[in-house]
Amino acid sequence: MSFSDQVKEELARVLPERKCCQAAELAALLYLDSTLSLGAPGELGLSLTTRNAAVARKFYRLAKSYFSCRPRIRVTKSQRLRPGNTYTVYVPLLEQVQGGLKALGLELGHLRLASPPAGLVSRPCCQRAFLRGAFLGAGSLSKPQSPYHLEVVASQQERLAVVARLMREHGLSPRLTWRKGQHVLYLKEAEQISELLNLMGAPASLLQWENVRVLKEMRNEINRLVNCDAANVAKSVVTGTRQAAKITYLTEHYDLEKLSPRLREVARLRLVYPDFSLQELGQMLEPRASKSAVNHRLRRLESLADALRAEKEAAPPADG
Ligand SMILES: [Zn+2]
């Protein structure tokens, strides 16, 4: 089962206690994922088609209780390419169903559901229920190991407007795009997806999401540190080699006995260990010296070598 289906299974098991929330969730399922269709000959109805059995079951229960009617379910074996079943829950447009739709703010005009259910989602409990219904009907979520992506799709952009507004009211910042004839409302940030899972009421999926996410981010951080460390080591080897080269120049053109014992000792160590860090050199000195003290001494040796070389180059070549 995909992670998305797993989240839906969990959300489908949440049955809101309050009538107001049940209505909001049903409205979201109808608004985002139902279509008008012909059921029995000449009979018009609303149907919701899904590949997730738990979603079909939930819609069935909500519709049955809210409209006081008996929806019909049709199960179709899917094609060879996509194994599994497809479930269609069909609600005939009886008189009480039409009345119920009106109460949900969903009116039938020109054979399609029109006008968003504005008054339905004023309370926070109902807002969460609406978001849950929207995700159950038209949403999907990538598995946490993949790049983070949660989306809700609809064929008409205005159907996503309510969902986008509710997400924003809860501090999320969804973005909108267009893909293969569908409008897509999506979230890309891991924190925001966690927050939405929390709002919709999927604590088990949220925990699993967070566990994988923490591991993934820890691994990224370790890789970053390792790369950064490797870069630092490479940099210090380059510096050490340059210093050793300058000290070699000093040994050839200068009497090292003229140096103070401290400088002489650092010069000797650097020549032998060009790849050692300043800290490592400092620990080999007697008495031990700090990183910055070693750095200071090496700089003095380098500038002495530079000055000597400049002097040599400026002087006229000695005659035979
Ligand atoms: Zn409510």
Quick recap of the structure?
With 320 residues, this protein is α+β, with helices and mostly antiparallel strands.
What does the model show?
This protein has 320 residues and is of the alpha+beta class. It folds into two domains: 3-201, Roll (Endonuclease I-creI); 230-312, no CATH class. Helix content is 57%, strand content 16%. The chain is built from eleven helices and ten strands. It has helices at 3-13, 19-33, 53-67, 95-103, 124-138, 158-169, 190-200, 203-253, 261-272, 278-284, 291-314; strands at residues 34-38, 44-50, 72-77, 85-92, 107-109, 112-114, 139-141, 150-154, 175-179, 182-187. Strands 1-2-4-3 form a four-stranded antiparallel beta sheet. Strands 7-8-10-9 form a four-stranded antiparallel beta sheet. A two-stranded antiparallel ribbon has the order 5-6. A hairpin with a 7-residue loop joins strand 3 (72-77) and strand 4. The mean pLDDT is 88. The structure holds zinc ion.
- The Cα radius of gyration reads 36 Å
Provide the structure class: alpha+beta
CATH class of the largest domain, named Alpha Beta
Rounded mean pLDDT score: 88
**Apparent shape:** rod-shaped
Ions, cofactors and other ligands present here are:
zinc ion
Please give the order of strands in the largest beta sheet. Answer: 1-2-4-3
* Sheet with most strands: 4 strands, antiparallel
CATH architecture of the largest domain: Roll
The number of domains? 2
Number of strands: 10
Strand content: 15-25%
Share in helix: 55-70%
The name of the CATH topology of the largest domain is Endonuclease I-creI
Low-confidence stretches: none
Give the termini distance in whole angstroms. Answer: 90 Å
CATH homologous group name of the largest domain: Homing endonucleases
Output the number of helix runs.
11
Element string (H = helix, E = strand): HHEEHEEHEEHEEHEEHHHHH
